[in-house]
Amino acid sequence: MEHSINISLCMIVKNESNTIRRCLSSVKNMVDEIIIVDTGSSDNTKDICREFTDKIYDFKWIDNFSAARNFSFAKATKDYILWLDADDILLPEDIEKFKAMKKSFDTSLDSVTMKYNTGFDEYGNITLSYRRNRLVKASKNFKWIGFVHEYLEVYGKTFDSNINITHGKISYKPNRNIEIYESKIKEGIHFSLRDILYYGHELYDHSRYIEAIQYYSKFLDSNEGWSEDKIRVCNNIADYYLSVNKPEDARKYVFKSFEYDNPRAEGCCRIGFSFIYENKLAQAVFWYEMALKLEKPKNSLGFFNDACWTWLPHLQLCVCYDRLGNHKLACDHNEMAGKFRPNDKRILFNKQYFKNLGI
C-alpha cells in the first residue's frame, strides 16, 4: 500500500560545527523529526542543532558507535528512520527524489538503500561509491552491530532507490578507529569476523601492510563473510604486491577475487597494470579492453572505483597502443578518456603528442 510516511532523522555527533548546519539544512524539509545524540562535543555543535530541533540528547562515549546509534534510534517516534552522518548532505536533485518517494511510499518496505558517494575527482566524477541501508521501518527495531565500522542489521523487504547521499568530509580523525580496535585487543575482547576484516582495513590504511595481510588472510581463510568484502580484500592485497613490484602475486589475488563474483573492472585494470609493468602489452590490452566491456552491477552494496569503469582503461589503452605502434587507436582512446577528465594534464599532454605526430 502506498501513502505518505513520517520520518525521524537520527544522528550521532561530536564536534561537528563545521558541517552539521550544512547537513541539517539539506534535509530539514524532508523529515518530520530530528533526533541528535551528542557524544561529547566541546564546540558549539549542540547550539547549531538547536536551530533545527529541540530533541538533543547526551550520550556518554564508550568507544562503541553502535551503542550510540542504537540509543538515537530508540528516541525516534515516527514510522521510518533515516540516518546520516554530520558530513553527509543531499544534493538538490536527490532532495526532490526523496520528497517524491516519501509522498507515495510503499509501506510494506522494511528498508530503502541509497547510493553513498564518498569520493570525487576535481571534475566532479564519482571515484568511490557503495550502497547502504538508509531508511528503515521503525517498528522492526533493527539494531546496529560493531563498536567501530558499525552496520545496521536489516532483513525483510528492501528497495534499492535512485537517491544519492553525498559525503562531504571536511575533518578526518585518522587514528580514532585503529586506537579503538587496539584498546579492545588490550582488553581481551573477542573479535568477530567483521572486526578482523575492518581492523585489517585500518592496518592497511596506516601502511602496516604485513599486519594487514595477516588479518586479511584470516578473513579469507574463514570461508565466511560477504563476497563484496572478499573482493575488496583481494584488491587491497593485489595493490600491495603491485607496490612492491610483485606483479605475479598481485594477479593471483585478483584472480582469487573472481571466485566470489564475475570479474569487475577494478580487477581487470589491476591485471592490465601488472602486465604493463612486465612490458607484456598485448596481455595488458586484453584486460583493459575487458574492463570496458563489463557492465557495472547496478544495485550491488559493494565498493566501486568508478575510474575503472570509465576513463582509466581508455588512458591505459592509449599508453599500450602507442607503445605497440598503433598511434591512431591510442589517440582515439585518449579522446575517450578526455570526455571524463577534460583538463587532465596527462590527457592534454597526449593530445599535443598526437597532434605533433599529425594525428
**CATH classification class of the domain at 2-167:** Alpha Beta
Q: What CATH architecture label of the domain at 2-167 applies?
A: Alpha-Beta Complex
What is the global morphology?
A: globular
Roughly how much helix do the residues carry, as a percent range?
40-55%
State the distance separating the first and last CA atoms. 61 Å
What structural class do you assign from the helix and strand content? alpha/beta
Could you give the count of β-strands? 12
- From the alpha carbons, calculate the radius of gyration and give it in angstroms: 23 Å
Q: What low-confidence regions span 5 or more consecutive residues with pLDDT below 50?
A: none
Q: Please trace the helix and strand order, writing H or E for each element.
A: EEHEHEHEEHEEEEEEHHHHHHHHHH
Spatial order of the strands forming the largest sheet: 4-3-2-5-9-8-12-6
Keywords, please?
alpha/beta; globular; glycosyltransferase activity; transferase; two-stranded antiparallel sheet; single chain; Spore Coat Polysaccharide Biosynthesis Protein SpsA, Chain A; 45% helix; 18% strand; 359 residues
Q: What is the compact description of this entry?
A:
Residues 8-130 form the Glycosyltransferase 2-like domain. This protein has a domain at 2-167: Spore Coat Polysaccharide Biosynthesis Protein SpsA, Chain A (Alpha-Beta Complex).
